[in-house]
Amino acid sequence: MDRFREINLFVQIVEAGSISRAADKLGLPISTASRHLNALEARLGVRLLQRTTRQLAVTDVGAEFYRRCIATLSDMAEAEAMAKDSVVNPSGLLRVTASLSFCLLHIEPLLPEFKARYPEIDVDVIAENRYMNVVENNVDVAIRTRQFEADYNLTIRKLAVTKRVLAASPRYLSLHGIPKDPQDLSEHQMLIYNYANNPLDLPFEKDGKSVTMHVNASISSNDGQIVIRAALHDMGILVQPKYIIFDPLERGELVTVLDDWELPRLTMNIAFQTRQYLPTKVRVFIDALTERFRENDFEKRWN
């Protein structure tokens, strides 16, 4: 087995957590996969995996080797894609990650037209409210709501800005009253998204005046869709980016409150690995998403 296949086998074993599952995926006998793994470790002179009859664990050296192997395989795939893109349509696996809300509202609706136009691109949508490590997880495109990234390996492109608003159902407000200023929120049931930045401290601004209101969560969740459902069931006042609740607001199912006070707006960004050559599958997806936002004038609607 050449070095490329050894590296690919090792990566598949780590990701599958099993020599047998990796061998099955690669169409190899288990004995052959084990022999090649032993040969790789012998050539390197290190133990990459600790193996028992019941468990397989990656050593510290193996974990670092895996990280570098992923980068190597990605570079090789990129080089092949660069050569192929000049003569064939974009193809391959495209891994995209965003919050569940963003995936439901803006990635899934994009897919029918995108797949019709680029049928040879397979799209893996990873709905994840916590930010994944783009490089380590071999992600092609990630949607982020923070302005800067600590990882210099990432390129950031602004997608849109959205207001953050407070809203509740008309029935909740009829039963509990409409807050007139931020201090009134202490008398209300608050529905909080846990992964927001300092979710219980709301920094309001109005006419140059700033006030930070600390609230208690009547209901909190790590997913914005749960918070929205609670608000629609008359359970309290939520704090969400306007893009997430735009449709319920348009239908009158939710009503904004404290409209004369402003919360910090969120900037949605497209993040992708910084490369000298951007794979065509990544470029066409970014172009399609950007065009969707431009055609619908989302930023204007949300602000």
Q: Could you name the key traits of this structure?
A:
3 domains, 5-stranded mixed β-sheet, D-Maltodextrin-Binding Protein, domain 2, 14 strands, Arc Repressor Mutant, subunit A, 303 residues
Structural description of this entry:
By secondary structure, the protein is α/β, with parallel strands linked by helices. The protein folds into three domains: 3-81, Orthogonal Bundle (Arc Repressor Mutant, subunit A); 89-162 and 267-302, D-Maltodextrin-Binding Protein, domain 2, CATH 3.40.190; 164-264, 3-Layer(aba) Sandwich (D-Maltodextrin-Binding Protein, domain 2). 41% of the residues lie in helices and 25% in strands. It contains eleven helices and 14 strands. The strands form four sheets. The chain has a five-stranded mixed β-sheet. A five-stranded mixed β-sheet has the order 11-8-12-7-13. A two-stranded antiparallel sheet has the order 1-2. A hairpin with a 4-residue loop joins strand 1 and strand 2 (56-58). The longest helix has 26 residues, at 60-85. The radius of gyration is 24 Å and the shape is elongated. It starts with a helix and ends with a helix. The relative contact order is 0.14.
The largest pleated sheet is described as: 5 strands, mixed
The fourth-level CATH homologous superfamily of the largest domain is Periplasmic binding protein-like II
Share of residues in helices: 40-55%
Report the strand count: 14
> What do we call the CATH topology of the largest domain?
D-Maltodextrin-Binding Protein, domain 2
CATH class of the largest domain: Alpha Beta
Unreliable stretches (pLDDT < 50, length at least 5) are: none
Read across the widest sheet, the strand sequence of neighbours is: 4-3-5-14-6
Radius of gyration: 24 Å
Structurally, the number of domains stands at: 3
Describe the global form.
elongated
Quickly give the structural class: alpha/beta
Q: Which percent band covers the strand fraction?
A: 15-25%
CATH architecture tag of the largest domain: 3-Layer(aba) Sandwich
What's the end-to-end separation, in Å?
58 Å
* Helix and strand run: HHHEEHEHHEEEEHEEEEHEHEEHH
Number of helices: 11
Oligomer: single chain
Give the overall average pLDDT: 90
